[in-house]
Amino acid sequence: PEESMDQLPTTSATPTEQSSENSLPDLPGHLLITALDKTWVAAVVDDGQRTDYYMREGDKLELNFTRSLQLILGNADAVTLSYNGEAYSTSSLADTVVTFPPNQNSR
């Protein structure tokens, strides 16, 4: 049975404060996912356990992390992403594991 977003908790590795200074390297990461249509999202925060989320149009999911976030989008075209307050392109993200911070992809 599918669970809706309002039945699933927001995952937060550490609390974050709203700040306009997102460029400091030791700040935790923050990803906001907004659903434009039905989709699912799988997330692994700081090498922890995988959590799956089922989202409907208008749902928002905030994921906070200290070291890393691995993300799989069921339908990349059905979401918008905001990473540390800036829009993050979802083009060509379908069926791939996306790692945040982004520079960890190229190692």
How big a fraction of the residues is strand?
35-45%
For the record, give the distance between the C-alpha atoms at the N and C termini, rounded to a whole number.
38 Å
Shape: globular
- Helicity level: under 10%
Given helix and strand content, the structural type is mainly beta
Radius of gyration: 13 Å
Kindly report the spatial arrangement of strands forming the biggest sheet: 4-1-6-7
Q: Overall mean pLDDT score?
A: 79
Total strands: 8
Poorly predicted runs are 6-25
For the biggest sheet, the summary is: 4 strands, antiparallel
Query: Helix-strand pattern, N to C?
Result: EEEEEEEE
Total number of helices: 0
3D architecture notes:
This protein is mostly beta strands and 107 residues long. The protein has no helices and eight strands. It has strands spanning 29-35, 39-45, 50-55, 60-65, 69-73, 79-83, 86-88, 97-100. A four-stranded antiparallel β-sheet has the order 4-1-6-7, with no helix packed on it. Strand 6 and strand 7 form a beta hairpin.
